[in-house]
Write a structure and sequence with these properties.
Length: 147
Amino acid sequence: MLSGIDFKIRTIELDGKKIKLQIWDTAGQERFRTITTAYYRGAMGIMLVYDVTNEKSFENIKNWIRNIEENASADVEKMLLGNKCELTEKRQVSKERGEQLAVEYGIKFMETSAKSSINVEEAFYTLARDIKAKMEKKLSNGKKIHK
């Protein structure tokens, strides 16, 4: 077991189908950057999470995106999440800045609060739906080619 990497398997139901999510949470620690590159290759979706009360965590997102672009498949679904949105008095990163960064990279954005259960489920379902839609499109394109 790698100390500091939180691994979970979560099953959700989406459009009547059970979908298994494997979740690797490195908490953005630099020491896991080389380890995580191996997991990017098989990933269909990646959530990039920063802490709205921590400017440095937001600034690091660009480094993580660069790392993903270098190591993950070109069509991996990405989503940007600003976590701890309930801590309004400690906020260092505005919602607008999160939205701007997401637009810059062409990815979806949400603010969440794991502590207050704000948008966490929605984020997982949104990413899972986007992955499922992409897979269905690939399958239907594949069938057209083989006919």
